[in-house]
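Supplementary Methods, section 5.1.

A reviewer requested that the exact input to the structure prediction be made available. We therefore reproduce it here, unchanged from the version used in the analyses.
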Amino acid sequence: KMAAAAGATAAAGLWSEVNRCGQNGDFARALKSVNKILQINKDDVTALQCKVVCLIQNGNFKEALAVINTHTKVLTSDVIAFEKAYCEYRLNRIESALKTIQSASQQTDKLKELYGQVLYRLERYDDCLAAYRDLIRNSQDEYEEERKTNLSAVVAAQSTWEKVVPEDLGLREATYELCYNSACALIGQGKLNEAMKKLQKAEELCRQSLSEDSDVTEEDIEAELAIIHGQMAYIMQLQGRTEDALQLYNQIIKLKPTDVGLLAVIANNIITINKDQNVFDSKKKVKLTNAEGVEHKLSKKQLQAIEFNKALLAMYTNQADQCRKLSASLQSQSPEHLLPVLIQAAQLCREKQHAKAVGLLQDFADQHPANAAEIKLTMAQLKIAQGSVTKACMILRSIEELQHKPGMVSALVTMYSHEEDIDSAIEVFTQAIQWYQQHQASQTRGPKSPVHLSLIREAANFKLKHGRKKEAISDLEELWKQNPKDVHTLAQLISAYSLVDPEKAKVLSKHLPSSDTMSLKVDVDALENSHGATYVRKKAAKLTGDNQQKEQGQGEVKKKKKKKKGKLPKNYDPKVTPDPERWLPMRERSYYRGRKKGKKKDQVGKGTQGSTTTGSELDASRTASSPPTSPRPGSGAAVSAASNVIPPRHQKPAGAPATKKKQQQKKKKGAKGGW
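The structure derived from this sequence is encoded token-by-token as follows.
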């Protein structure tokens, strides 16, 4: 009895110590006291609960969960459900936390709060939104602002990842967190300018809020603003302002924020800006995406995008095996996703294995018909790159859901025209027009849609352009029927019928408007003086009286004016007959025999030092056996020995200095440097 009394007294003192430490926030000392209590009574439920709480407050979630699992008989789910679920949540065992919450017999407010967080992490946004709405409706405490912030975060996630247009919750954006979440929701809707304004407001509110605390430094404020600046940079990137975005991204990285999720997203965005350029920087940045804990900070789509970019970076850096490994892993995780197979095909194309790439894409299209259209477009592109335009057309025509689209029709017609396969091009038009006729018949009996009429017109114009006037008649009649006032279509129809049925053409020509109704009131002067006029008629001034006589007098003087005589060459001799070929270039004249070589008998040759050469050695054309030299482009003209007549333009004037030839020889000498 005395021992029991002593134990009870000791336990009471220890409980007092636990209570005091708990109020002071000293959970390490409280834990020591709790352990002493458990030595006295190991199955004390309150002591075990206190131990779990102390371990949670100290961040020892694994140890706390181990205590709960060890004492399951004492610590039942009704007693410790929240603490167990919270430990599982903090250890990123989200599915286990959800089961623990759902298995609890009583759903307390604490469990409901944790339930909302768990649903958000599981990306079950609709259920999460309902949970937070219920909490806000049924709670009245100091945490209302935090719940509204979480609610706005759910709405932003729906807008970003599920492309759901968010409803107006009527939340007053009094804090920077609410402003930030509102901006994220606007980004999801593509309202980038509005989102940027919200982020600027969030930055201002954040600075105001933190500057009120004297203990907060400027560095602390910049660290808190990092996520807002990161979202601003993302908007800049979406707007095409990549240089500004890159600068802001790098500023955030220099701050070394502790949020590994933020760093991973920024690093990924920088990699997307670099693309296949600056791969060394991208390889450095990709390390930030591999940091510990990143997978628990980002959504599934964010993590998937990072993995896709890793595979692309491996391809750009010629790491073929790594690229194949990453893309195969991604394909196993998301078999229906397009990007992994497209990356694999791109890698095969880089390795010049185009046929294998097309085969890979064809297999994927067969296995996943829902995504076949996009895959077949890529296959067609590969076939065009190989020069197989006809095969590309066959692949495109196999995409049934796109056959009637104007873009597809235009592409096919262009490719068939390039291959000079006019019949196939006309067949493409016919199939598209028939689709619209069938579709419209099932929808309405009213006038044809603008797209339908546009296709008929394009088909008619194409047939007329390629001389298929007979085939164009039915299309033109359809167009004229839809719009009888269309004179251009009527003229085309008459032109087509003139080859097939002239009588019909005459009958239709009666529907043409008369020339009187077609005359246009055009101001000719204004038209001629317009900016685009190629000819402007000079306005004749009205002349009366003396001015008219004066002008007439000037006109008479102009008529009497004689034509000026052309200037003759200075060395012109009227006794000598002019050369009839004087207007031809020297090289084209019949007497041209190449450049006349100078006589340099006594000059030293260009051989070894001291040696000399004779003139005949320098000029091989002087030897009797050598053939006449052929004309060289750009060389001086030589006068034929067979003609004693010197053309007037090449006569040397009497008394002219004989220095011109020497100057020409010097020029020739300098010209040799180009050979």
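The radius of gyration is 46 Å. These observations are discussed further in the main text.
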